[in-house]
Amino acid sequence: MNIIFSTNDNGVCYLLVSMYSIIINNKRSELHFYILNSGLNDKNMEKINLLGDALHIKISFIKIQDKLIKGMTVKNNAVPIESYYRYLSPNILNEGKALYVDIDMMCTENIEELYSTDLEGSDIGWVCDSMVFRRDDSVVKKLGFDETTKPYFNSGLILMDLESMRNNKLTKVY
């Protein structure tokens, strides 16, 4: 299974916990973690590699070049630019399929069934997040989303058919 994370040096502790939770709940799966980053320092890369080496997990670090995000702006300063790297995945990974997981996600069971989900011709599989509508101060309500006619999807867990995304030119790098 190809698992994508994106982080900077500030998120490495969260990343390690998320990775470990996936590893211990998917012991029989062949895992390959792709770490999309803006340039992790050597100490943090060593920590990540130690986890991978100890548990026999393949890890690939992919430093996102500035030219790939040139002109990209972030309207929400609470969200680091690295969180948008997931959308570059079809252009930078030579894989057919991958699961993007936010670094603050915890895995509590085997994800093989999720990973094997037939997307039935769709490029991506999203998780509908209905919990955001339970809060009175919900930002998504203010943006016009609604549980039945305009659902909100959690971008922290995305099953991607990378090959289909490339073929359909869903993302474009300038």
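Next protein, fold it too.
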Amino acid sequence: MTSAGAPGEITRAAYDEAFPRVTDAATLYLWRQPAFRLVQWATAVRLPGIAAIVAEALLAALVFALFWRGHLWAGLAVSVLVMGMSVVSLMLSRLTHVAAATNRLRVAVDIVYPLAWWWAWEHALAAQGRPLEPIYATMLLWVVIGGTIAIRVVEGLALHRFNGMQLHAWRPLDTRFRLVSTGRNINLAILAISLLVGRPDSGFVAVAWWTLISLIFHAVRLAQLTEEQARRVKISSWLDQ
């Protein structure tokens, strides 16, 4: 998946072939082109995949610290860099030789740090003069964290049951919903809008509701897929047709 020119150089065709066909709107439309240049540079300087993961983790830790201390705009600005590094580390894992353990670490980092971000955002609401009632805030936080983990479980079950097919790739509806489904990038967009209008507390509430709605949608789609499988209907992705 490299060019016929300079050894190790990533071609645009190889990059486009390896880029996720089903992902969120920010990754698909905002980061696709910039990440290509970063991946080209990373392969040119022979940057190891673990270095990109470490850089992503360090930036994510900085976002957590900024959110926790109430510097929400600064945290959002740094989170944009985390988005880019996340795409770069993903593409390096797909386009270059990366050890299985390194790839598992990348996935773990991508799963864990956003959960810490939402906790830090909830904690910062008091500093913003918009504290939520403690029990209510705890309930919302558990909806966001528990819902996010539950969605990951649903996605994993789909991969296991349906021969590696992503749940989001079953029908066009699933692929379109994945563009806006709850996740790091979409949640950050919701929080940014809420901060822009001066209501970071409402943004956190909105993230909790959107997490719950997304979980219900994915759980229903998994149940429908399971029913189709029980009826011996051939399960395949619309992207392969």
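About the second fold: Confidence is low (pLDDT under 50) at residues 1-5.
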